[in-house]
Amino acid sequence: MAQPPGFIQTDKSLVCKLQKSLYGLKQAPRAWFERLHLSLFRIGFYSAKMDYSLFIRFHKDHITFILVYVDDIIICGSSTSAISSVVEQLQSEFPVRDLGFPNYFLGIQVDQLPNGTLMLTQTKYINDLLNRTNMHMAKPIKTLMVAGLKLQPLEGTTHDEITQYKSIVGSLQYITITRP
């Protein structure tokens, strides 16, 4: 790190200490999350034990949930007035854009049924993965490979193939971990 203009010190053992987090540094997301957590705590939310990015508030016979992923937030609850109140309180501290009802979030399609319940599916994510890997026309079979087959290493695999393979395996893991 270079000394700022106008600040000339010849002592090379000095270091700069940040007084607050700067955008772009690795500490910035943590500082933002801590600020959000403190703000939510002040308005009555607590962090769920099973997932620290899920916040819950019981207030006047209503329950409100806030799910945080990086800088995206989903707010849902048993009362639209309670949700509106939370949004107003957050707008007093953070720039907030209301994008309406989430149709698709982190690979999960969200549909609201006529009775008010939410249906979560991954059909679109799975179909997109099948199309991306040119497997959309494949026919499923119960046995994918002959039992007892001895596999040999493939000669000359390229870096792109390895990267694509890891991406596909990661997508399959994501599907199984997040299945609704």
From TrEMBL:
Keywords: Oxidoreductase. GO terms for molecular function: methylmalonate-semialdehyde dehydrogenase (acylating, NAD) activity. Its EC number is 1.2.1.27. The keyword Cell wall biogenesis/degradation does not apply. It holds the Pfam family RVT_2. It is an enzyme of class 1 (oxidoreductase). InterPro entries: DNA/RNA_pol_sf, RVT_2. Residues 1-145 form the Reverse transcriptase Ty1/copia-type domain. It comes from the Eukaryota. This is Retrovirus-related Pol polyprotein from transposon TNT 1-94. The lineage of its organism: Eukaryota, Viridiplantae, Streptophyta, Embryophyta, Tracheophyta.
